[in-house]
Amino acid sequence: MARTDTRYIPALRFRILMPLYDPLLKWGMREEAFKRRLIARAAIEPGQDVLDLGCGTGTLTLMLKDAVPAARVTGLDGDVEVLNVARTKAARSGHTIQWDLGMAYDLPYPERSFDVVVSSLVIHHLHADDKLRAFREVRRILRPGGAFHIVDFGPPVGWLTRVQTSLMKHLEQSADNFEGRIVGMLEEAGFSGVAVTDPMCTIFGPVWFYDGLKPKG
What we know:
Elements: H1 21-28, H2 31-42, E1 49-53, H3 59-67, E2 72-77, H4 80-93, E3 98-101, E4 114-120, H5 128-141, E5 142-153, H6 159-168, H7 175-178, H8 182-188, E6 192-202, E7 205-213
Parallel strand pairs: 1-2, 1-4, 2-3, 4-5
Antiparallel strand pairs: 5-7, 6-7
């Protein structure tokens, strides 16, 4: 049975820590490196509609627009505060980006709205059943042949990351990630060609790159 007490977990879990979000990602999580790799994997083309799912303060969203200026980029998040930060960043950059308020498991878009959906360090915030709901929602809004690209925590790759993941399991809804269940969830949601590759180590644990396609049929 699906849970009915869904909770929203803000960036860094506690709102008082929100001002530390961008500096922590930049200096502690190798943010630019893993986000550039995510953008490369997405292989976005001019004219495509792209959604940054759980865009936070908009760093990845702006990087997507920088990488492919002719793409139509949308950032979605469930937190009004971080969306306001993202809008300020976009105004300073001069980019035109659509910013929407919404939850990953209840997306405010019709079917077949996007060619590509990307997500960075969002999925581990969701409870297990909400992860699956979110993946089904992403599949719904993708056009046939569209792609879903995720960078998020994954299984440990050595003794240090085993220590990190043992601690992180108690701080977030991340056990599904660290125990390697994300691929199976993507397949259960109807994605094909699901793959997980290229781990990178960070101060909070290993991040992996997950890819899935919406079948063309």
